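FORM 7B: Structural annotation worksheet

SECTION A. Query
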Amino acid sequence: MKGYVVCVYKNISNVDKLKEYAVKARVAVEKFKGKFLIRGGKSISNEGEKSPRTVVIEFPSYDDANKFYNSIEYQEAHSILKGYAERQHQTIEGA
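SECTION B. Predicted structure
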């Protein structure tokens, strides 16, 4: 089964740091054969609070999605956002 990384941002305090993070995170996504399905874009909130950004990445498997998150490449990118973004980040097994 495919694996998905779902990231819902609650706030972003530094857009430049987000851009720096995105460049490095993309390298890790590509290494683990991830495919961006949602990367920001126009949205409305039908229920609950509106998020400033949502990202969904599809991986060949749940294990690949977890390997991506725990990789040195992604963790280096992730460290860039520390203190600049608050978000919920999940790895989910697909149907």
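SECTION C. Observations
The chain has a mean pLDDT of 96. The domain at 3-42+51-89 is CATH 3.30.70.100 (Alpha-Beta Plaits).

SECTION D. Sign-off
Analyst initials: ____
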